[in-house]
Design brief:
The complex is a heterodimer of chains A (114) and B (110). Chain A is built from no helices and 11 strands. Chain A is mainly β. In chain B, strand 9 and strand 10 form a beta hairpin. Chain B has 110 residues and is an all-beta fold. Classes of the chains: A mainly beta (114), B mainly beta (110).
């Protein structure tokens, strides 16, 4: 039973399109995150939700909009996709209320914008 | 700007040797430190966490923390080809934020 699951695993789309990535965790964690990993493998935080509340909103274009309908789900919607959005997007979760800050990552979504 | 620095490598070691991976961080107030292993095309996997100065051992892995020097290291004893991966150092800086280093690529030669 997958702990943090992301869909889709691969996403190839044209510039200007709108797409969504979904994430679900069954670990009972209270905090979920979106990270972007670029071609140089550098992981950069985008958003963090704690108990459905947006906690971190890094400097990302407002074309990116996260949504957390409940503690177990965190989705990412991207409008008007650009070539530079091509990357691997990882969802992760942790249990911050128990001072446990280590992450469990999803398998990632490789987004290619053509 | 809070930073986590790692040598990108690749670090090449023969099978059975000790691999030593290093990391420095800029935020002196950081309290929690992590090592993740990432195989090519896969997601990062948490392998070690350390919170206080000194050494922490788990199987063939030993994490070392020196807060005065703002330095974290990971030692892998009896390195195996299956240890070949990118190792990411991560530092929890507070406010729900964890900063990752760019990773060190390790190659273990059979």
């Amino acid at each position: 039973d997958t702990a943090v699951s992301q869909t889709p695993k691969y996403l190839v789309t044209q510039m200007g399109n709108d797409k969504s990535i979904k994430c679900e965790q069954n670990l009972g964690h209270d905090t979920m995150y979106w990270y972007k990993q670029d071609s140089k493998k550098f992981l950069k935080i985008m958003f963090s939700y704690n108990n459905k509340e947006l906690i971190i909103n890094e400097t990302v274009p407002n074309r990116f909009s996260p949504k957390s309908p409940d503690k177990a789900h965190l989705n990412l919607h991207i409008n008007s996709l650009e070539l530079g959005d091509s990357a691997v997007y990882f969802c992760a979760s942790s249990q911050v209320s128990r001072n446990s800050y280590g992450y469990t990552f999803g398998s990632g979504t490789r987004l290619t914008v053509v | 700007q809070k930073e986590v620095e790692q040598n990108s490598g690749p670090l090449s070691v023969p099978e059975g040797a000790i691999a030593s991976l290093n990391c420095t961080y800029s935020d002196r107030g950081s309290q929690s430190f992590f090592w993740y292993r990432q195989y090519s095309g896969k997601s990062p996997e948490l392998i070690m966490s350390i919170y206080s100065n000194g050494d922490k051992e788990d199987g063939r892995f030993t994490a070392q923390l020196n807060k005065a020097s703002q330095y974290v290291s990971l030692l892998i004893r009896d390195s195996q080809p299956s240890d070949s991966a990118t190792y990411l150092c991560a530092v929890y800086t507070g406010g729900f934020k964890t900063i990752f280093g760019a990773g060190t690529r390790l190659f273990v030669k059979a």
